[in-house]
Structures are given as C-alpha cells and as structure tokens.
Specification:
By secondary structure, the chain is α/β, with parallel strands linked by helices. The chain folds into two domains: about 140 residues, NAD(P)-binding Rossmann-like Domain (Rossmann fold, 3-Layer(aba) Sandwich), CATH 3.40.50; about 180 residues, Dihydrodipicolinate Reductase, domain 2, CATH 3.30.360. It has nine helices and 14 strands. The longest helix has 17 residues. The chain is globular and about 55 Å long.
C-alpha cells in the first residue's frame, strides 16, 4: 500500500527534514502535499524527483490525506490538527499543544509504540530533549526501575529553527571578519557562548522546556510519580542535542548491566570507551537515526545511581524521524 501525506510547516527546518526522511526511509508515498503559512504559499520545492508547490495551510486543505505531519506553532496545531482528523487523516503533531492531553497519545515508538494505536485522530510527538534523554533512560529503567532523574541539556541552535541556525553562522562569520555581531533570534550572542535559557521562564524559576522533560517523561514511560529536575542550556552547536543525566533507581545498579541494556536497546548506540576518547558527540550524531549513550558510571552522590551522557539529532529523533516512525508503525 502507499499513502497520501501532508506536511504542515514544510518550509521550516523540521519540515525540510520530514521531506528528506521520506526519501531516505523509502516511505510508501502515493502523494505528498506541502503546506505552510500564506507568506510561503506558492513557493516551489524540489524533492523526491519532482517539483512541489507549497499551499496555504487551512482547515479545508486535508481532504484525501492519510497522515499529516505537523511542525507548526502550538496555536496553529490546536486549530488544524482537529481539522485534519475530521478529514479522515491521522495528525502527528510536533508542537506541545496536545502532549499532556489525556486523550492524545504521546509516543516514542521504541518506548511506548503501542500507544499510537489508541489514537483518536491526533498523536503527539515529544519534546526534542525529552526524546533524546528517554532513549537513554528507558532501557535503564527497564533494567533497574527509574526513581528520579536530574538532567542538564546542551541544546543545538537548530532546536530554535532555521533562523537560529543562520544566526549562528552569521555571528561566526562576523567574528572571523572582526565585524559587529548582530543578534535577533536570541537575547544574547550564541557564537562562543552558552546560556541557561531555552523557552520562557515560569513563576517557579524553571522554563517551559525544563518542565516538559518532567511532565512528558512521566507520561511516555508511564511512571506518574517520577521526579525529574532539569536545566536547559543553549550552546553554539548547529544540530544534535546532548544531555547529561544523573538517575536514581529502585534496584542496585551495575555499570556492566547498564551498558548491556543500552547496547541491546533499539534506536540507540553504546559509545563508551573513555580510555580511547570514545563517547557520543553532536558532530558524530548529526543526521543519524540512532541516539547514543556513553560515560556510563556509578553516581557517587545517589543511592543506586548512574551518571551518563546522551546525544541525538533533535531534528531527526527529536522531531521529524520520530514522527515518521509513528506513522510507519501504523502502516505496518
């Protein structure tokens, strides 16, 4: 069988990865419709050996589609995902609009793939850092029983979209040419810098991004009492997020068993040999389907604790790839 696919936000960074991955993974595509805002309507995109004309995303544009991949802002998703579902399509949404909705499954296929089959027309894609972190934490949870988790993230600029990627490149060129460095996307210069500010701040001092890790981890892994404390940091990396995690477990932990659990888990590679300077790095896992875990060691500050490092391409496993894997699971 082949399927009719729509992409909302087709001209953005994640939208472009959707198109690329449809070809890389040889998805059985009958037809592809590309949607964006009215500003981008009429734009031509060369892909999959043909030219596509971008259409404006509206409530009435989804007829005849089997699946619609959304990479738009939450407000637009709240409006258009129900319209896509009403037209008979399954909407897979990359925004935060539906992630905590009890009637909408929040899915990482390697962890809770069966939840996708309970959908009512809408499936939520997790936050990018949550996806990368849980690809590492879930196999260890299966082995030892996850109790609580502390995380610090090192998030690439591509998590903020195409404009942020361009801003980093422009600032690097300006620095090399000894020219004034301009900033528009971020409040601070990102080139040669790092700042603990991803998403907006809340009254409790955390950012929305940091609480996503807490709330989404509970739902995806079905651990409603899981405690997660996170600090999210933007770093001058083009793509692939990194996460430093300290986790406490119910059972006694073993580094050897932990490595074996990671090595046998789907969608994740064990890269852990510090003696030869081997550990996951963003450069090595950009445009890679698998995430990676390394620096696994017993945590000396936690009972039954492990410290480890996870890396993954947030444009892929943290966004476009995960969404595509969801619809692949529904077509199998």
């Amino acid at each position: 069988m082949s399927y009719n696919i729509g992409i909302v936000g087709a001209t953005g960074a994640v939208g472009q990865e959707f198109i690329k991955l449809l070809q890389i993974r040889q998805f059985p595509l009958a037809d592809l419709k590309l949607f964006a805002s009215s500003r981008s309507a009429g734009k031509r995109i060369e892909a999959l050996d043909r030219t596509y004309v971008v259409e404006e995303a509206t409530n009435s544009c989804f007829d005849g589609l089997d699946f619609v991949l959304f990479s738009a802002n939450g407000t637009l998703s709240q409006e258009l995902c129900p319209a896509a579902a009403a037209a008979g399509a399954v909407a897979v949404d990359n925004s935060s609009a539906f992630r905590l909705d009890p009637d909408v499954p929040l899915v990482i296929p390697e962890i809770n793939g069966s939840a996708a089959k309970t959908h009512r027309g809408i499936i939520a894609n997790p936050n990018c850092t949550t996806a990368v972190a849980l690809m590492a934490a879930y196999p260890l949870h299966q082995a030892f029983g996850l109790k609580r988790m502390f995380a610090s993230t090192y998030q690439a600029v591509s998590g903020s979209g195409a404009a942020a990627m361009e801003e980093l490149e422009d600032q690097m060129r300006s620095w090399a040419a000894d020219e004034p460095i301009e900033k528009e996307v971020y409040a601070h210069q990102i080139a040669f810098n790092a700042f603990p500010h991803v998403d907006s701040f809340l009254e409790n001092g955390y950012t929305k991004e940091e609480l996503k890790m807490h709330n989404e981890s509970q739902k995806i892994m079905d651990i409603p009492d899981l405690s997660v404390s996170c600090t999210c940091v933007r770093v001058p990396v083009m793509r692939s997020h990194s996460v430093s995690i300290n986790a406490e477990f119910e059972k006694p932990v073993s580094v050897e068993e932990a490595k074996a659990a990671i090595a046998s888990a789907p969608g994740v590679d064990l890269v852990d040999d510090p003696s030869s300077d081997s550990y996951p790095m963003p450069l090595d896992f950009a445009e890679r389907e698998n995430c990676a875990v390394g620096r696994i060691r017993k945590d000396i500050a936690l009972n039954n604790g492990l410290a480890f490092w996870a890396v993954g391409d947030q444009l892929w496993k943290g966004a476009a790839l995960n969404a595509l894997q969801i619809i692949e699971s529904l077509t199998e």
